[in-house]
């Protein structure tokens, strides 16, 4: 298994690179996000996290600028039925990892389906299947909650405890917070309930 490559760029196209390592040129398929981060040009040196995809009559090497990109690629091809490397690469090329995670957590299939090559049904399946996989969406959600302040998080948790979906609670609290940035937890819960009723 080839886990990483460090070498000279022999050829650079937006969706693939040829990397020279020890006299051997490796053809590596990369998402647009990786290409943009690396800004590779002939003769430059790059370091890629890689994944070797092997099936009956297919062997392809995929490369990523970050662990997050590679992890999302693996999550999609290994845990979501009907998602192969082509669609996973289209997702990485069409949307930053953090934005993708946010839309899955918020169950926003409309935003996901704006990615070229990703229809509404596939977007809905991604959300459904990732939400069903233990720990995936919960851990993404925890990341999001950690980046917001405690008042909003406490209000969201209270609304969820009252039986509302997490995406609904977040939207309601966000709306109240926008209108009244200094609202207390009680205010957010009260106004959030009004917005949800």
Tell me the strand percentage band: 15-25%
Q: Name the helix and strand elements from N-terminus to C-terminus, one letter apiece.
A: EEEHEEHHHHHHHHH
- Would you identify the CATH architecture of the largest domain? Orthogonal Bundle
**Helix-strand makeup class:** alpha+beta
How many helices does DSSP assign?
Answer: 10
* CATH class placement of the largest domain: Mainly Alpha
**Rg:** 21 Å
End-to-end Cα distance: 54 Å
CATH homologous superfamily assignment of the largest domain: 5' to 3' exonuclease, C-terminal subdomain
What is the total domain count?
3
Q: Which residues form runs of ≥5 with pLDDT under 50?
A: none
Largest sheet: 5 strands, mixed, barrel
Which percent bin holds the helix content?
40-55%
Average pLDDT rating: 86
Task: Using the coordinates shown, work out and report the CATH topology of the largest domain.
Answer: DNA polymerase, domain 1
- The number of E-state strands comes to 5
Strand arrangement in the largest pleated sheet: 1-2-3-5-4
Q: Which overall shape is indicated by the principal axes computed on the Cα atoms?
A: elongated
């Amino acid at each position: 298994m080839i886990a990483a490559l460090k070498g000279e760029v022999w050829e650079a196209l937006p969706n693939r690179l040829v990397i020279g390592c020890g006299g051997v040129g490796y053809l590596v398929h990369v998402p647009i996000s990786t290409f943009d981060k690396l800004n590779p040009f002939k003769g430059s040196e790059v370091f890629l996290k890689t994944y070797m995809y092997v099936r009956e009559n297919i062997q392809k090497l995929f490369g990523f600028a970050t662990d997050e990109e590679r992890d999302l690629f693996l999550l999609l091809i290994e845990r979501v039925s009907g998602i192969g490397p082509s669609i996973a690469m289209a997702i990485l090329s069409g949307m930053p990892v953090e934005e993708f995670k946010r839309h899955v957590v918020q169950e926003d299939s409309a935003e996901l389906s704006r990615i070229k090559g990703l229809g509404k049904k596939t977007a809905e399946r991604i959300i459904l299947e990732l939400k069903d996989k233990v720990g995936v969406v919960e851990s993404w959600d925890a990341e999001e909650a950690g980046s917001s302040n405690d008042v909003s998080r406490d209000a969201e948790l209270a609304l969820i405890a009252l039986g509302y979906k997490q995406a609904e609670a977040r939207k309601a609290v966000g709306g109240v917070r926008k209108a009244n940035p200094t609202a207390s937890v009680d205010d957010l819960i009260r106004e959030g309930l009004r917005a949800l009723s």
